[in-house]
Amino acid sequence: MDKRIIANIKTLGIDMIHEAESGHPGIVLGAAPILYTLFSRHMCINKDDASWMNRDRFILSAGHGSALLYATFYMAGLGYSLEDLKCFRQINAKTAGHPEYGVSPFVEATTGPLGQGIAMATGMALGGKILGERYQTSDNTKLFDYYVYVLCGDGDLMEGISAEAMSFAGTHQLDNLIVLYDSNQISLDGKTHTTFTENVLQRCAACNWHTIEVDGEDIDAIDLAIQEAKTVNKPTIIQCNTTIGKGSFLEGKNTVHGKPLSIEDIANIKQLHSILDEPFYVDFEAKQTFTDIIYKRSLHKYQKFTDIYHQFILENPEREIELTSFMHNQEISIDEIDFSFPTEEESTRVSNGKVMNEIAKMSPFFLGGSADLSSSTMTYLKDMGDISCHSYLGKNIWFGVREHAMGAILNGLALTNFKVFGSTFLVFSDYLRPAIRLSALMHLSIFYIFTHDSIEVGEDGPTHEPIEQLASLRAIPNTLVFRPCDTREIIGSWKYALKKKCPSIFALSRGNVPLLSSSDIDKVSLGAYVVRKEKQNLSGTIVASGTEVSKAIKVAEMLERENNLFFRVVSMPCLNIFKNMSKSYQQEVLGDTTIFVMEAGSSCGLEGISTSTKTLLTIDTFGRSGKKQDVMKALAFTEEQLKRRILDVYGVKHEK
Amino acid sequence: MDKRIIANIKTLGIDMIHEAESGHPGIVLGAAPILYTLFSRHMCINKDDASWMNRDRFILSAGHGSALLYATFYMAGLGYSLEDLKCFRQINAKTAGHPEYGVSPFVEATTGPLGQGIAMATGMALGGKILGERYQTSDNTKLFDYYVYVLCGDGDLMEGISAEAMSFAGTHQLDNLIVLYDSNQISLDGKTHTTFTENVLQRCAACNWHTIEVDGEDIDAIDLAIQEAKTVNKPTIIQCNTTIGKGSFLEGKNTVHGKPLSIEDIANIKQLHSILDEPFYVDFEAKQTFTDIIYKRSLHKYQKFTDIYHQFILENPEREIELTSFMHNQEISIDEIDFSFPTEEESTRVSNGKVMNEIAKMSPFFLGGSADLSSSTMTYLKDMGDISCHSYLGKNIWFGVREHAMGAILNGLALTNFKVFGSTFLVFSDYLRPAIRLSALMHLSIFYIFTHDSIEVGEDGPTHEPIEQLASLRAIPNTLVFRPCDTREIIGSWKYALKKKCPSIFALSRGNVPLLSSSDIDKVSLGAYVVRKEKQNLSGTIVASGTEVSKAIKVAEMLERENNLFFRVVSMPCLNIFKNMSKSYQQEVLGDTTIFVMEAGSSCGLEGISTSTKTLLTIDTFGRSGKKQDVMKALAFTEEQLKRRILDVYGVKHEK
């Protein structure tokens, strides 16, 4: 029966690809036995409750194997109809080209960009360890004890992000993480020996992983390996030696990787597996058997979870609300927090650290860490402990200098209902963009804290001074970039961000800023608002964000005092929000006048607000190394220079 | 004397940091013996000819150790004065906050963003292997036989990019690459054991590296290790066990990493090393000794190189021009190439592949590869061989699924005067942004070929469909993004790009486009130009790029035929160039009318051209999975829909 089920998964997969005229048959034929073994012998997942919190997670890191995944789900009775398979890769289908979280049922994470899956799985496994330690009954029975399984290919392991995540997983002893490595030594461009000759298992062992090697066709061996993995206190990688496109005329060749097979080849494969040569043939007996096996095992675990849950609540009635809110992935509301405000100038990174500490005190699920910069980004949660292999009870994660894995691990934790943040310098946001993009695509509410947000970094020079980062982050769809000017706007940004199903980026300053008398917590939700009204006859408006807001006010004061020009200053903590406000609100805020935009970064994305290129007080060249004031001067960004740049515009107008 | 020199390097380094009130003393005190050993016993570098092509390269991957580097250079007589040291981290100083290529003499690459240095060094080492095999005299003496040395820290090795590069270096047997690993088990946030417990040497061994472990204070041991490294046919990593901030009161603590030391501590360290306690004290005898050692050894090698060079030219007079042009890093001119043009519609990725093959035939130094997507990006150079450990004579590099390392390796090759390209899908440009940023910062002429440049990718879905990538790449300072519409514009883009000291990005289509009768090779240099004139009374202008140009022309034809509206179409192959053209040229091209911008990507950066947000025919949401036409329709991007969106604008106007 095992063989019949595997054969049917394979033929359905290649039929889907044939029908779609698009897809990746190589992995379907090569890795079907691995996926079948995992699902038939290990996965605990409830077909009637896809979001059951203690379900095992399966991540197809090799996301191009989506046909294999959907075919397996179909045969396992997990949320897919034959019609769904027939619509593979068609618009509006559940069976999206690559597995899409929120679109494709039972898909735990959107995958496709290689390496991300392993790293997100690492986050889910870490989440499992945290939950396991947090929620135990009096007899030390864990409420949460799920496993996270990954199927990955050579491509995943070549990506640096997987090396980062695996090193992290090894250090953190994530023994609930089991990676099945589909080792077929073929990638899109050919044999991997041309470029990938490392000893993967040895590399993993060096990173404190348990390693096992098996024949990828031998389901008993795979089963035993998974069993063994569950007995060790390390993450495990099981290298399954497979043949890409097994059974196809193109078996073992890179040409079988990413194109539909010929009709003759499909017929050949079906004959090989004694499957009737008709499109989408289903062996319903096989399907029922597979479905039943999983259901029966899972139901047992599901009921056990329910029992433990009730026992836990009985023993800890005061924690029921917490647990329920977690399982329902409820938003954090910070309306009740009585935040304090600084009495002296301080940097927004420092102010933000204080705000975050208050939020963390209120929500047990608000946690995160830094890519080895917490002493600079100020995101450490004081007196709330660290998360390490010695104890997962804390709230501070030490990601190491691994920005990219940090982003993906945050994705994994958010997919496990944690409210998470990660921090680094704004300029290094470039290192984790692919992970942020996935946060956005999956509608995950994640908080990226990026400090040292402009050339005011000074001495560290251009490699550490962001220029294009604000613009390029704002350009990511479904992403909010906040650049608050003081504590009030920081609080407002958090209030807004915590309610949104999207990643929120906080760009924060290294240098001190004053608490403005006119800043407003609630008006952050408008994207931009007036922080300084013109005294009379509006001469112009300066739109600014972050550190530049207080600077703009000073410039406006100079212009009034020295030049009798009356400027309005608009603080724009979030361009993304402001752009989506009504035209009338935008006009009301900006005024019917010359509009300047002052931001210590790229003009890209700000032209829509600025009256012309001349009124863009921005920086489109790289920064410099030197004292903050000298760098500002070199880039024409001191208050005096900014004032002159504004006056120049009026000078030109005057001459007309 | 060794000790005296090392001591003086250390005290100068901490004096610099004290004077600058900024910098990283930890590595100065911890790694000075390593750097001293390397420079005094191995480096061949000519103080009078910094760009000597056969010099050994040293890359400070841990770029924050710049004070150590400059102090060493000063003591070694390499291009720095005491005054330079006193201006450390000040504006316009040679002694920039992090080592800057082109600013700081003898600095081979800009470093600071961790991990990049190792990967760039990998590129330089690969360059060395290519040169070594290409240029040999009749008795097999290599003209180029330099070594590439790297000093890296824990942070570098945590970054995924270093794992990618090291796996590549191992596979390619870059035995001229020697990494000195300053292993102090401390990073900015604390001890590395919280997050970095892997066995680095074992991991490297798994990647086909030779590994050695030494005491980082023992200069003879370090020397011997480097000698040993030179005897094996693999890259070598030498783990030098050090103590961060050695001799400081803060020795061994993370607090010594990144802040100036106290005056008391500086006095203490000077006393410890018997150095006079005065600022910037120099032991001139020590300085002279160090300078002489390096100079003497290097001069010998330098003269030998000159001899071999002459012998080579004598034996191969026909290759003198080639070699000279290479050593002078001369531009490639393609004016003489007689390119052919397609007679049928074809994708710009295919057209570009043909153009690149022609360029490659002409220049021996034009080479590159793909991150395992050459069969999709079409950048394979036919009949020009592969670069592998078996032979470095070819021109195609197999980077593997390692976009980030690819970018950095390209940087390393470009720093070695090669004219290089790398390719992947546009959406995955996110994986290598930090490397592209360094290409731009270092003014390197590198060609990034990014194909599958829009939602027309279709079935692969949103993970594979770029939206924000064009905008975010255009926002990088000193970077050109070309999105040519056909073969003529591709040729024009190359003509322009090959002459510029900056990275050039080519965004190319998966789908077919026609060769336009009105497209123009030379007008690419204007950034944008008219490809379709309005028949009469200009109704509006559509600015488009790439695939959208022929689409815009069709829409314009429909509008003329069906609605009697007369549209001009402007092709804009390079927004970056167009933005810098004169206002009068811009106005001449765009016309005094309503200006639409049609681009299958983010509106960010295009608002400056478009008349209003309503005239932006762009896509600010993620793509979808489905057939190309269905995806286009879902995102309102079919020709019919685009026409209607344009008519809507006129309808609104009409109603006014």
SSE layout:
2 copies of one chain form a homodimer.
Chain A: H1 2-20, H2 25-41, E1 57-60, H3 66-75, H4 82-86, H5 116-134, E2 148-152, H6 154-158, H7 160-171, E3 177-183, E4 186-187, E5 190-191, H8 200-206, E6 210-215, H9 219-229, E7 236-241, H10 263-272, H11 284-315, H12 320-327, E8 346-347, H13 348-362, E9 366-370, H14 374-377, E10 386-387, E11 396-398, H15 403-414, E12 419-425, H16 433-441, E13 447-451, H17 469-474, E14 480-482, H18 487-497, E15 504-507, E16 512-513, E17 529-532, E18 540-544, H19 547-563, E19 567-571, H20 575-579, H21 583-590, E20 594-598, E21 616-617, H22 628-634, H23 639-655
Parallel strand pairs in A: 1-2, 2-3, 3-7, 6-7, 9-11, 9-12, 10-11, 12-13, 13-15, 14-15, 18-19, 18-20, 20-21
Antiparallel strand pairs in A: 4-5, 8-16, 17-19
Helix pairs in contact in A: 1-2, 1-3, 1-10, 2-3, 2-9, 5-7, 5-15, 7-15, 15-16, 19-23
What is the compact description of this entry?
Chain A is of the alpha/beta class and 656 residues long. Chain A contains 23 helices and 21 strands.
